[in-house]
Amino acid sequence: MNELVKFEQYLRTHGQKMTRPRRIILKAFIETEGHLTTEDILREAKKVDPGIGQATVFRTIRLIADAGLAREALQDDGARKFEHLADHPHHDHLLCVGCGKIIEFLSPAIEKEQQKIFSQYAFLPRGHMMELLGLCPECQAKQKKGE
Amino acid sequence: MNELVKFEQYLRTHGQKMTRPRRIILKAFIETEGHLTTEDILREAKKVDPGIGQATVFRTIRLIADAGLAREALQDDGARKFEHLADHPHHDHLLCVGCGKIIEFLSPAIEKEQQKIFSQYAFLPRGHMMELLGLCPECQAKQKKGE
DNA sequence: TTGATAATGATAATCATTATCAATGAGGTA
DNA sequence: TACCTCATTGATAATGATTATCATTATCAA
Ligand SMILES: [Mn+2]
Ligand SMILES: [Mn+2]
Ligand SMILES: [Zn+2]
Ligand SMILES: [Zn+2]
């Protein structure tokens, strides 16, 4: 797993240590697709070692994100969600406000326009978050039936 | 103030009542520009009536948002922020990760592309959140000096 | 192998938000 | 206007996610 190597490198260059819990948490996170809460990650990690604590998951997921291996997905409320970036190119989200369904998409046109905004204000780009909110076809049909 | 009329209308059509605290909170919110937390709003409202409780601010700001007079600004963490929509057309945010400075902008090109995404997936648009993160010119200079 | 130091996990603390509830207020009706 | 019903209020407790604390344990460079 290449992610493990990257993570070890990140830790080394930041004066931190690779540990058994960190290895387990990283592996559980990378091997699970989707938008995960720390609770989700803890559940997976506990399958390997039930002794792992949730505080360690919070600490480790932040390290993983800082290492550039994960990003925080937009949370409406409740718990934060993370998704890994392994073989997962950058994308944005289209979310159904009715059922919570998430569609991932990438719009090169939008990405290009965003760069224009950055340069227009002389900002050094550091990323962006974009979430489109709408009603999916199924929820539209459900709503029509409802009234 | 036109917003007061709209809010009264919203309340009436939803079987809810206009009250003195609600009037004070709405006025304080509309008359303050920027991205406000409920604590900010409470502070302003207390200047008019110190007896107002923070629970009422939480409840009222949600009503105001539901009435279409406010929207939630993207919060990284900590308290939620709201901004009113009175004489304030839709816009997105460019945020400096160094100093927290916020620039409001509108990109018609991006808005148009977002509509394309919605129709591509047959979603009924309900809004969007977009935040560009970067380093402002001042913070870039500061950083260069730092090392 | 050792020793300095970082990491762990249990637990308490924090902080924003929501729920509860007795008292009050709004506003339609007679 | 007086009344009556039901929404609203503010104080306070509860909740839920995240962070801080701290004694114990593990890592890893020398
Ligand atoms: Mn995603
Ligand atoms: Mn704004
Ligand atoms: Zn849906
Ligand atoms: Zn800045």
From TrEMBL, chains A, B:
Necessary cofactors: Mn(2+); Fe(2+); Zn(2+)
Amino acids binding Zn(2+): 96, 99, 136, 139
Entry's Gene Ontology BP terms: negative regulation of DNA-templated transcription; negative regulation of siderophore biosynthetic process
Cellular-component GO terms for this entry: cytosol
Claim: NADP is one of the keywords in the record: no
UniProt key word Transport: no
Co-factor remark: Binds 1 Mn(2+) or Fe(2+) ion per subunit.
Database matches in CDD domains: Fur_like
InterPro entries xrefs: FUR (IPR002481), Fur_C (IPR043135), WH-like_DNA-bd_sf (IPR036388), WH_DNA-bd_sf (IPR036390)
Alphabetized SUPFAM superfamilies for the sequence: Winged helix' DNA-binding domain
Protein name, as recorded: Ferric uptake regulation protein
Originating species: uncultured spirochete
